[in-house]
């Protein structure tokens, strides 16, 4: 009898890799959606169109945005909040007057 050499199994993809791919796809869908939102509004049809342009199928869109366009709007708001926090966090605001801080925060938010 001959011994079988064990076959090497491919490593299962790390969950982090899947999460990173989902995050990248989610970002791509948002980018495409923002191009059309001014004309089409935030609608399910616009989300489907943006998903198609970004390379997301219906299952991926359902996973990434479970409440449809509401999830997209929520993701957009959260991503803008995070970008604003990142930009403001890089500045030393401690020596500025409160009205200057508020003005800078508002202008930063509007620029995003």
Brief overview, please?
71% of the residues lie in helices and 0% in strands. It has helices at residues 15-40, 44-54, 58-64, 69-89, 98-111. The longest helix is centred in the first third of the chain and has 26 residues, at 15-40.
Structure description:
This protein has 112 residues and is mainly alpha-helical. The chain has one domain (18-111). 71% of the residues lie in helices and 0% in strands. The chain has 5 helices and no strands. The longest helix has 26 residues, at 15-40. The relative contact order is 0.09. The mean pLDDT is 88.
List the secondary-structure elements in sequence, H or E.
HHHHH
Shape call: elongated
Poorly predicted runs: none
Gyration radius, rounded: 21 Å
The N- and C-terminal alpha carbons lie at a distance of 70 Å
Count of separate DSSP helical elements: 5
Question: What structural class do you assign from the helix and strand content?
Answer: mainly alpha
Beta-strand residue fraction? under 5%
Question: What is the β-strand count?
Answer: 0
Provide the helix percentage: over 70%
How much is the average pLDDT? 88
Indicate how many domains the architecture comprises: 1
**Biggest sheet character:** none
Properties at a glance:
mainly alpha
Would you spell out the secondary-structure blueprint of this structure?
Blueprint: H1 15-40, H2 44-54, H3 58-64, H4 69-89, H5 98-111
Helix pairs in contact: 1-2, 4-5
